[in-house]
Amino acid sequence: MLNPQKQSHNVIAYAGLILATITIQTTILHISALGMLCVDLGLIVVIWAGLSKGPRYGMTVGFVVGLLEDSLSGFALGTNSLVKTLVGVFCGVLGRRVLPNSPVTHLITLLLCSLLDYVLLYLLQVFTDPSILNPGRFAMLMMAGVLSTTVVGMLVFRMLTRSAFFRPSRVPDAVLEQDEADAD
Asked: What is the pTM of this model?
């Protein structure tokens, strides 16, 4: 278990990472060849938080990132926050089951979670306003978004792995806690 000072440093580090991510995404990356954002930096941060810190961090970071994205976009408030929260919890549970700092885990998780993010957002948009996006355009945007988010995510994960604040432990905390509980 982390001491309170280490936890507060983690919270401040993740808050700074979220603000930097949202700033870069809304100022630099908002224009692409298709006229829509392809790289989802917020999703990359959510996946990293879930993998490296567990479901609680993944859920919290997912909700905050999603709410910020919702407030800065034209989508219904709560759509991105719901999807990013679900992705964060999924990554947190996955991070407990696998080694969170393995490049293979990073690649597979980025691909799966990017795909999950796009599909859930599309389904929520179809249920709220079916005329918003046709399936052909969605498939094209999804392929571009999943691939670009995965490639950029691998580069970002490489940088975060080297950072003292964001580096995951070799063995997930949940595994250590479970081993201690089993020993008692």
From this structure: 0.81
Angle at which helix 55-72 crosses helix 41-53, to 10 degrees, equals 170
| Residue 180 lies inside a defined structural domain of this protein | no
The domain tally of the chain equals: 1
For the chain, the maximum distance between any two Cα atoms, rounded to a whole number of angstroms, is 58
CA 183 – CA 181 distance, rounded (Å): 5
Q: Which residues contact 52 (CB under 8 A, 6 or more apart)?
A: 95, 100, 101, 160, 166, 167, 168
User: Is 184 within a domain?
Assistant: no
**What are the backbone dihedrals phi and psi of residue 106, each rounded to the nearest 5 degrees, phi first?**
-60, -50
CATH number for 125 = 1.10.1760.20
Residue 108 is predicted with a pLDDT of 92
d(CA 68, CA 169): 28
DSSP conformation class of 77: T
Structure tokens at 172: 């997930």
Kindly give the parts of the chain with pLDDT less than 70.
1-7, 29-37, 100, 132, 164-184
Element (H, E) at 19: helix 4-27
What six digits make up the tokens of 141?
């945007």
